[in-house]
Design goal:
The N and C termini lie far apart (31 Å). By secondary structure, the chain is α/β, with parallel strands linked by helices. Strand 2, helix 2 and strand 3 form a beta-alpha-beta unit. Strands 1-2-3-4 form a four-stranded parallel β-sheet. The longest helix is centred in the middle third of the chain and has 18 residues. It has three helices and four strands.
């Protein structure tokens, strides 16, 4: 099994994926940089080629992550709308990415520590 993740639309790269035995791919939902977002035709093509897709919602980064309940609800709502738009099967996961501290995270510095709650 070969798995990759990319913010590049794979519509023009199916043969390359197949030639390299890619069987699973991580793709993104987002508002910022919509050109990095998975599209309905891309999802359909990957599914028809039997390439599994996992979805990550990632919209912001940097040194000041907006980790608030309001921002979490906004991102969750954005992700659900994009899932509906491409036909993601109901009940399948959407993962959320948090990144941005220039020196990584520690238990002491992680702004999300103890504040990430399931919807």
């Amino acid at each position: 099994m070969t798995a990759i993740d990319t913010n590049t639309n794979t519509l023009k790269h199916l043969k390359t994926l197949q030639d390299n035995d890619v069987t699973a791919i991580g793709r993104y939902y987002r508002i910022v940089h919509p050109e990095w977002r998975i599209t309905k035709p891309e999802a359909k093509m990957l599914s028809q080629a039997n390439i599994k897709i996992w979805i990550v919602y990632e919209d912001t980064g940097g040194t000041s992550l907006p980790l608030t309940v309001a921002k979490g609800k906004e991102h969750g709502s954005n992700a659900l709308q994009q899932a509906k738009n491409i036909g993601q099967p109901e009940g399948t996961p959407i993962y959320f990415a948090l990144e941005g501290l220039p020196n990584g995270y520690s238990k002491r510095t992680c702004p999300a520590s103890g504040s990430i709650l399931p919807a």
